[in-house]
Amino acid sequence: MPETLFYAKAMRGTSRLVGHWLLIGQSSPERLAMILADTARVAKLGEPKDTPSGATVEAWSGDVQPPLWAARAASFLLMQMPTKPAPRDETEACAWAYCWLRNRDFERFEDAQAALPEHLREALAQALPDAWADRTSQRLI
User: Fold this and answer.
1) CA–CA separation, 124 vs 127, rounded Å?
2) What is the pLDDT of residues 25-67, one digit of tens each?
3) Using 50, 70 and 90 to split pLDDT, how confident is the model at 101?
4) Across the chain, what does the average pLDDT equal?
5) What is the DSSP letter of 91?
6) Residue 2 has what pLDDT?
7) SS in 3 state form for 34-85?
8) What's the DSSP call for residue 107?
9) Which candidate, 6, 51, 114, 116, has a CA 20 to 30 Å from the CA of 101?
10) Computed from CA positions of residues 43, 47, 53, 57, in that sequence, does the dihedral angle turn out positive or negative?
């Protein structure tokens, strides 16, 4: 997939990532919004100025593209859940792969691939190489 198509898919998938977090986060949208913002700050995934409202995060899971810190925090949280969620479709998989490479620092593709949680290796098998190609084209910097 050419990098421009990948990037467009990954950006569309960020809403799905946030939606996935809302779907399985097991709390109110207000609480999940607070967890998302606090995670971004603590894990150094971005610096939200304010904690968004639950309604804002719900909008981000629909037609409103979330800020990158929200998608990065959602992927960070989803990848650590004991239920081992995985992307639900190709567009969401692109966002997961994009955020995986943004959240961690890898020198080689093989390192990024090997560091993936086991349950995500197959789910991101197609998206991760495209995310890496996008990263090496300097779009992620």
Assistant:
1) 5
2) 999 999 999 999 999 999 999 999 999 999 999 999 998 999 9
3) very high
4) 93
5) H
6) 54
7) HHHHHHHHHCCCCCCCCCCCHHHHHHHCCCCCCCHHHHHHHHHHHHHCCCCC
8) S
9) 51
10) negative
3-state DSSP assignment of residue 128: helix
Burial of 141 (C-beta count, 10 Å sphere; 0-12/13-18/19+):
exposed
Q: What is the pLDDT of residue 140?
A: 43
Whether the pLDDT of residue 4 is over 60: the answer is yes
Pick from 67, 38, 95: nearest CA to 86: 95
Please tell me the predicted confidence (pLDDT) of residue 136.
86
User: Which amino acid is residue 33, in one-letter code?
Assistant: A
Reduce the DSSP state of residue 5 to 3 states and report it: helix
Structure tokens at 97: 């792969």
